[in-house]
Amino acid sequence: MQPDTTRRDIVLAFRNIVRQRRRSLFALATIAGGVIALMLAGGFIQWIFDSMRESTIRAQLGHVQIVRPGFYEKGLADPYSYLLPEKDPLFAKIGQTPGVRTIAPRLAFTGLASHNDSTISFSGEGVDPDREKELSTYLYIVDGEPLSADAPNGIIIGQGLAANLGVKTGDTIVLLAATAKGGLNAVECKVRGLFMTAAKAYDDAFLRAPLSVARQLSRATGATSWLVLLDQTADTDRFIRATQAEADRKDLQFIPWHELADFYKKTVVLMSRQVGGVELLIALIIILSISNTLSMAVIERTGEIGTMMALGVRRNGVLRMFILEGLLLGTLGGLIGIVLGSLLGSLISYVGIPMPPPPGMSTGVTGRIHLHPSLIIEALSLAILTTLAASIFPAIKASRMNIVDALRHQR
């Protein structure tokens, strides 16, 4: 097809849309409405994903965990057999790598916590209070104060664990745990605060103590893992590849956060299916609406179509004309929907969406709309592809008309 012919067909299709203002406006409103609905629904779900991801990273896992090989397969039952050295040149080197915000050691331990007549099992993490500040921005202290290097015996407890144990801020509890050599050891600690994360299961089982308390309790040196926090989450896999290649350490395993975030991955799969269902409904609405609009146009323009074919316009030319009308409607409606959807998304994010507390949490959150470029492209593609699909049947119907019958239409 020649460029001039293509330009002429596009101009003709645009004029046909403009002259049927009422029907075209209805079609554009339908397409734009579908695009806006997809952008707002998808943007809200994307905000949930982003919030869950950052909460998982900045309250529990970090971007990368460096452990001994096999730690997550066998080491959870015997963490002291997979200890990292207390002083390792690689630790300091990673901390000075561009793009790394911080690196912090953690020592995992388990045991029993006792307060008055209550005794309950717990999972604990010994952390460096100063290095953990960046890694704990999504770990909310709901009562009391966070860990501090100035309070070596002060610990913080998950809100659910504290409720089960019957303790509050300021109480003294006794931690009993197995040592690295198989004995038992106990340490008396003071509860500095109660924390809450987005994961209720974590809050019901975990407490955090200064690294010195964990080492005193376990009589172990070193750490079970090093947690790396990066400036950008998207750099996680690139950082692992580069660091592994440069360090060339067979005694270390670099694990990205997304391999450990099982709850996050399952949530993404479930809610992505829900967005897919919304997208399918929007596509069906657009297809039915545009197909009806173009079918009515074919009926009204039957005589005109017959005249065009009588003057020498081929059937594929008629077919192309109606398909181009559908594509133009989809493109214009999609662009209008993207502009309005972006404005609405920004306005809603500015105002905020008040939401009730998630299950297991006592504090509500304020929702936002996150419009990623991939979502905008997906919305525009949906508008164009659905209108293209909707225009095929009316276009075929118009191109297969009998010229004589079309010329006699309504005479």
Class from secondary-structure proportions: alpha+beta
The dominant shape is: elongated
Strand order of the largest sheet: 2-3-8-5-7-6
Q: Report the total helices.
A: 14
Instruction: Give the termini distance in whole angstroms.
Output: 35 Å
Major sheet attributes: 6 strands, mixed, barrel
Supply the number of structural domains: 2
Total number of β-strand segments?
12
Task: Outline the low-pLDDT stretches.
Answer: none
Our Rg estimate from Cα atoms comes to 31 Å
- Tell me the series of helices and strands, N- to C-terminal: HHEHHEEEEHEEHEHEHEHHHHEEHH
What helical percentage do the residues reach?
40-55%
Summarize the structure.
With 411 residues, the protein is of the alpha+beta class. It is 54% helix and 20% strand.
What does this structure look like?
This protein is α+β, with helices and mostly antiparallel strands and 411 residues long. It has two domains: 197 residues, no CATH class; 183 residues, no CATH class. The chain is 54% helix and 20% strand. The protein has 14 helices and twelve strands. Strands 2-3-8-5-7-6 form a six-stranded mixed barrel. It has a two-stranded antiparallel sheet with strand order 11-12. The longest helix has 41 residues. 36% of the residues are buried. The mean pLDDT is 84.
